[in-house]
Each structure stands twice: as structure tokens, then as C-alpha cells.
Amino acid sequence: MTTDLIAPSILSANFAKLGEEVDNVLAAGADIVHFDVMDNHYVPNLTIGPLVCEALRKHGVTAPIDVHLMVKPVDRIIPDFAAAGATYITFHPEASEHIDRTLQLIRAEGCKSGLVFNPATPLSYLDYVLDKVDMILLMSVNPGFGGQSFIPATFEKLRQARQIIDNSGFDIRLEIDGGVKADNIAEVKAAGADTFVSGSGIFSKPSASDAHRYDSIIKEMRAAMATVSR
Ligand SMILES: O=C(CO)[C@@H](O)[C@H](O)COP(=O)(O)O
């Protein structure tokens, strides 16, 4: 049975105390750390790179780190992220000159590989490379910023992606990213997702004490997901 994974997007965390933020969200029950890399070229924003990934590992983070590359070109940064401790590395097919080669490179570097689909990017990019994909990430917002609203057409795309995965027989995670919150996470799971990125939906909902600031929101998300069986 596939387990549901909650992946807080640290884009919405307090960068002035990132290590503590990641510790707190993992202690609250999150499963993996979603790490958004933006280059002010492929997307109109600039964020963090391998140094920060390595710093989180040195800080003691042992949970999987799910690196979402919103960069172009893609290939030359992959070995750096692998060395920095990335677990998953996903990229946008439009940003790679040779998609099959990039997927192979990620696995050769010892990481799990993934393709990311913008809202208007067709799933046909999966044709011929499914055997080299560990994760399909569907963007339910246009990439570049946290705090946007979920684009409803993504529900149908999730259903199609779920069908592709189930028909393939490969062990591929289906991740959703953008506008995912406690109040829509059940519907997103019902459409086929098993890995749930949430930035503002988690980090903008602190509860009373610092050490337990994310407990209640993660609990609320788990309870909502538990209402949907797969
Ligand atoms: O990759 C991105 C945006 O490009 C996402 O990971 C966002 O950071 C998700 O943030 P919310 O929509 O959950 O606030």
C-alpha cells in the first residue's frame, strides 16, 4: 500500500531560522522536505542552492530532501545537489535539452529522479521515459511563488497521471504542488496524489508554542487524508 507523504515547502518557512523550522515541521509529523530551487531565469524568482541543502544535512536533517529544480539549464547543477544530500531531484522537461539523459544523470548520481509538469505542460512528456522516473510532480500553480491558488484543471490531470502510473506497473510517486491546504488535501488525494507539497498551507499556520507550532496543521491534514481510501 502506498503511504501518503506530507512535504512542507520550505519556500514559505522563515529563512532566518531554517534549520529550526525544518526540525519543527518534521517533529510535527511531516515526512519529507520540499526544497524549491529557482534561478530568476526559468522562473521569475531566486531562491536557494546546494549550499543550503548541504547545510540542512549538516544541521542533522535525515528526512528525505525533495529538490524541485526550477532552473535552466538543468544538468550542470545535478551533481552538486547529489553531493549536497538531495534524495529526489525533479526538473521541468522544458528546461532540459535531453530529458532521457537528465533522468539517467540523476539516477547515476544516486538520487531518485522526477519530471515536473506545469499546469499547461502535457503528460505526453512521460512517453518513452516512464522506466526512468521515480516521481511525477504536477504543479497546480504556475511555478515561481508560494501562496497561489490551486488551479482546478489539475484534478483531471491528477486522475490521468494516476492512470498512467497504475498501468505502467512502475513504482512512481505522484506529487502535487501548489495551493494544497488542509481544506483541499482530501480531494487532491482522491484524484490520485500520494505526495503532498504544502508551503503557505503549513508555514503560515503556526500554533501557540514554538516547539509545537506545526503539530495541529499536520494533524489536520492527516485527518483529512484519512477520510479517503485508496
Ligand atoms: O514550487 C512551488 C512554487 O513554484 C511550490 O512548492 C510552492 O512553494 C508551494 O507553495 P504553496 O502554494 O503551498 O503556498
TrEMBL record:
<dbReference type="InterPro" id="IPR011060">
    <property type="entry name" value="RibuloseP-bd_barrel"/>
</dbReference>
<feature type="binding site">
    <location>
        <position position="9"/>
    </location>
    <ligand>
        <name>substrate</name>
    </ligand>
</feature>
<dbReference type="InterPro" id="IPR000056">
    <property type="entry name" value="Ribul_P_3_epim-like"/>
</dbReference>
<dbReference type="GO" id="GO:0046872">
    <property type="term" value="F:metal ion binding"/>
</dbReference>
<feature type="binding site">
    <location>
        <position position="34"/>
    </location>
    <ligand>
        <name>a divalent metal cation</name>
    </ligand>
</feature>
<feature type="binding site">
    <location>
        <begin position="177"/>
        <end position="179"/>
    </location>
    <ligand>
        <name>substrate</name>
    </ligand>
</feature>
<dbReference type="GO" id="GO:0005737">
    <property type="term" value="C:cytoplasm"/>
</dbReference>
<dbReference type="Pfam" id="PF00834">
    <property type="entry name" value="Ribul_P_3_epim"/>
</dbReference>
<keyword id="KW-0464">Manganese</keyword>
<keyword id="KW-0862">Zinc</keyword>
<protein>
    <recommendedName>
        <fullName>Ribulose-phosphate 3-epimerase</fullName>
        <ecNumber>5.1.3.1</ecNumber>
    </recommendedName>
</protein>
<keyword id="KW-0170">Cobalt</keyword>
<dbReference type="GO" id="GO:0004750">
    <property type="term" value="F:D-ribulose-phosphate 3-epimerase activity"/>
</dbReference>
<feature type="active site" description="Proton acceptor">
    <location>
        <position position="36"/>
    </location>
</feature>
<dbReference type="GO" id="GO:0006098">
    <property type="term" value="P:pentose-phosphate shunt"/>
</dbReference>
<comment type="pathway">
    <text>Carbohydrate degradation.</text>
</comment>
<dbReference type="InterPro" id="IPR026019">
    <property type="entry name" value="Ribul_P_3_epim"/>
</dbReference>
<keyword id="KW-0119">Carbohydrate metabolism</keyword>
<comment type="function">
    <text>Catalyzes the reversible epimerization of D-ribulose 5-phosphate to D-xylulose 5-phosphate.</text>
</comment>
<feature type="binding site">
    <location>
        <begin position="144"/>
        <end position="147"/>
    </location>
    <ligand>
        <name>substrate</name>
    </ligand>
</feature>
<feature type="binding site">
    <location>
        <begin position="199"/>
        <end position="200"/>
    </location>
    <ligand>
        <name>substrate</name>
    </ligand>
</feature>
<feature type="active site" description="Proton donor">
    <location>
        <position position="177"/>
    </location>
</feature>
<feature type="binding site">
    <location>
        <position position="36"/>
    </location>
    <ligand>
        <name>a divalent metal cation</name>
    </ligand>
</feature>
<feature type="binding site">
    <location>
        <position position="179"/>
    </location>
    <ligand>
        <name>substrate</name>
    </ligand>
</feature>
<dbReference type="GO" id="GO:0019323">
    <property type="term" value="P:pentose catabolic process"/>
</dbReference>
<feature type="binding site">
    <location>
        <position position="68"/>
    </location>
    <ligand>
        <name>substrate</name>
    </ligand>
</feature>
<comment type="similarity">
    <text>Belongs to the ribulose-phosphate 3-epimerase family.</text>
</comment>
<dbReference type="InterPro" id="IPR013785">
    <property type="entry name" value="Aldolase_TIM"/>
</dbReference>
<keyword id="KW-0413">Isomerase</keyword>
<keyword id="KW-0479">Metal-binding</keyword>
<feature type="binding site">
    <location>
        <position position="177"/>
    </location>
    <ligand>
        <name>a divalent metal cation</name>
    </ligand>
</feature>
<feature type="binding site">
    <location>
        <position position="68"/>
    </location>
    <ligand>
        <name>a divalent metal cation</name>
    </ligand>
</feature>
